[in-house]
Each structure stands twice: as C-alpha cells, then as structure tokens.
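Students often ask what a holo structure prediction actually looks like on paper. The answer is less mysterious than it sounds. You provide the chain, you provide the ligand, and the output is a string of discrete structure tokens encoding the 3D arrangement of the protein together with pyridoxal-5'-phosphate.
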Amino acid sequence: MKRTHGGNIYEVAKKLRKDPSEILDFSASINPMAPPPGLEQNLFQKFPLARNYPDINNTELISLLAETHNCSTHQVMVANGSTEIIYLLPHALGIRSALIVSPSFSEYENALMLARCSVVLAQASESNEFQPTKDFISYYLEQMRVDAVLLANPNSPAGALLDEETLNWILFLCKSTGSLVVLDEVFVDFCESRSFKTLINSHRNLLIIRSMTKFYGLAGLRLGYALGSPMLISKLKKHQPPWSINTLAQYAGIYCLKQDGFREKTIKFVERERRRFAEKIEKTDGFNVYPGNANFLLVKISDHLPPASTLHEFLLNRGILIRDCSTFPGLGSHFFRIAVRKPDENDELVTHLHKFVSLI
Ligand SMILES: Cc1ncc(COP(=O)(O)O)c(C=O)c1O
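The corresponding structure tokens follow.
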C-alpha cells in the first residue's frame, strides 16, 4: 500500500539533518493558532493518570461532543483520529463496494481496498472545484449499486463546500438502494455553519466523520469522531479496539471543546489570512489559487512552469515542506496544497515562490 501524506516532518528533518521543529510545514493543514492556550499545562496536570487505563467508554468526551453538536450521546463515537473510523467502515458497516468522489483523502481507498471492497473513483470536475453535481452523481449511481458513497465537505485538496441540494440528492438516491453516505467533515470546523451535521437526525444512512487533529492541533495525540444514527454508531463501536483513545487525547479533547473564544478567534483569523495569502500568491506570475473554505489552499502552477515536484524539491532544500498533489488521482503534475500558517510564515513562502519563478 502506497502512503503519501503531508506532514512527514520526521523524514524530511532526517534528510536535511535538522530537528523536526525546524521544518516549516505547509504540507499538513494544522490550525496556525493551535493548540488552544492552557492545553499544555492542563495535560501536564493530567499526566499522572497516564499510568492507568483510559476511560474505556470515553464518557466525558462523548457527552461534551454531544452537547457541542446538539445531538444524543448515542449518535457519537470517538476514535484514534478520524482515520481509525475510515478503517472501521468496511467491516463494521458491511461495505463491500464503494464510490469515492475523487480527488480525495487517499486513506478512503486504502482502507476499502485492504478490506477487499470493490472501489470506483469518480473523478469530479475541476470546473466545480472537484465537488460532485447532481448530474455527476446520477450518472454513476444509475449505472451501479454501491454499499457506500464517500465524499467530503469541504473537500480536500480543493477546500470547496458541497452544496445542500446535491447532498440531499445523494442521500435520496442512496436511501432508495439502501446505501450509506459517508461525509468527511474533518475540516468543517473552519466553516462550522456549513456543516451538515443536523441531517443525521433525519437520515439514518448518513455518517459524518470529524476530527480534532486539524482545528485543535492534536495531530500527534490523535483524536477523531463520528456523528450518525445510534445504529451506525453502535456497529462502529463494536469493531473498535478497546482503549483506542488514550487518556491525554481524551483530556485534550475535553479541554479544547470548552474553548469557545479560541474557536471564534481561529475562524476569523483563518478566513482573513487565507484571503490575504491567496491574493499574494495570485500576484506571483504563474500560480492560480482555489479560494477554499478551510485552512489550506490548492494552487495550480501554470503549464509553462516546472511541475509541483520541482517546486517541492526547491522549497525542501530551504526547509519548507509543501504537499505536491501529483499523487491525487486526476490532478496531474502541476497542483500543490499549502496550509494557511501565520502571516510571516506565509509571506516567507510567497518570497520563495517569487525566487522559484525568477530562476526559470
Ligand atoms: C480529508 C481528510 N480526512 C481525514 C483525515 C484524517 O485525519 P485524522 O486521522 O488526523 O483525524 C485527513 C488527514 O489529513 C484528511 O485530510
């Protein structure tokens, strides 16, 4: 299985003989404001509890997530990153065939293939920022019956939102065939008002996957969750290994969910900085930016410039890591994705983009 992800600061640091903390990582999309202030001290105080087993039922964390998302505790499960949920899907929910709206997170395909599912990658159009339309979905679902459809809101790497009418259409078509809709909303915290989480009350075939790793900067602690009908949630829980979520991750989640001010500040900051960063990049000759709705930007390099792999190498030698998107099926060689970081770091990247272009 080929694993290509952003964020491998350890591998890069080793190659460059640097400390991982010295790498300016634009390849993994982690909130530049994270973690929330006070988290480190809170976890330091909780550390003695790490000698005991974690709460096997994740009681406090689940209660708080249910309160946060205005649903019942039976509609929530927590996991060791949302990736764990993706890997539970085929066995726990009996998925033998799936349609993945592509380009998308590579672990959907990996997890399903590992479980010997038949997988169709449905290539969404660049003109709709790689989100499906009603016609697109109808075209596929009229030809084949699948156990599940996987898609994301906002999607990655483009960061585009799914429109409500299309999602309702997908839910309608899937209901008629008894298929599940898995909606990845791991980046929706950056535009929470656009989440479709309330639909879990009216659609028992909808499972929403969310994460706390991106928005709260807990990627190394691992913390994700799913929202769905009590039936889907209990099936997923049955297949999950015990103590999947360690004590510090549980306490980190509990602490973070109480930080209302941090959430508001982040959303405002990221929205403003994403716009400013995108405008600066657009002013550099040869780069086209997708506007996005989360904390990352998809950039297309003009054909007259070298591919993203060359830019990746150029920046790597300067201690900067970007996500070359050529491994995303259908994107080709000239796309890269970058996280929105702090203004001075974003400006540094733009300076290097100028240098790159001036060398051609
Ligand atoms: C779209 C998408 N979904 C899910 C994940 C998994 O995130 P995590 O396992 O850290 O919750 C990622 C990670 O990069 C992602 O980009």
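The first helix runs from residue 9 to 16.
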